[in-house]
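Lab manual, section 2.4: Encoding a predicted structure.

Procedure: take the sequence of the chain (247 residues), apply the prediction step described in section 2.3, and record the output as structure tokens. A sample record is shown.
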Amino acid sequence: MKEKPRKVQLFHTCIVNEVYPEVGISVATILERLGVEVEVPTSQTCCGQPAFNAGFHDDARKVARHTVDLLLKSGDPVLIPSGSCCDMISHQYHMLFENDAEYLKKSHELSERCYEFSQFLVDVLGITDLGARINAKVAYHPSCHLLRGLGVRTQPKTLLEGVGHLECATVKDQEECCGFGGMFSVKNSGISGGMLENKLKNIQASGANTIVSCDMGCLMHLEGGLKRRGSDINVKHISQILAEGLS
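Recorded output:
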């Protein structure tokens, strides 16, 4: 049996580091409780996805090279609390470096040990029940990059189902996009807003009091829509739900 890792590198992502640092703290709290040491490389920057999605591939490659070199300094797994950023590093770096043999090889080496948070807990550590308990009715939102890019479908749901007293609401069209998509929400704001309204309508109809996801980009988008509606529905990263249930 393969030995479970006892140390990880946390690639915290821009939005967590700059806007939602409490998510990074929740991730570290859970991992340390499980006996996993968390290292945070101090010179990490953006993964390069905004530049990549906007078509500035030379700028994205510059950022990506820094990220690859930084995270390959250690042989430890890389844990990323975002399906979006994890997909960028795991898959889109291969596209960026398709004409650069050296960094294409490095990017493949790195992608083999990159994991989204819920994926790491369930698939690597074999954790399905942390012993968390919390009274809430949650609507799980599977972000597009997590679901379609990484193929992570069951792991977040498994973790939520393992939380005592928590009810997972049934949401119509649950796997539909929330309309964020990073640059998409800026370039196509009208379409993005319409998608957001459909998503929020279905979530509110579910009776959930909390929206849970594995991507803070989606949750930021959803939270903005909720505030404009005057809704009292909360948004939380899955790590926050699990950490609160353990406290």
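Check your result against the sample. The radius of gyration is 18 Å.
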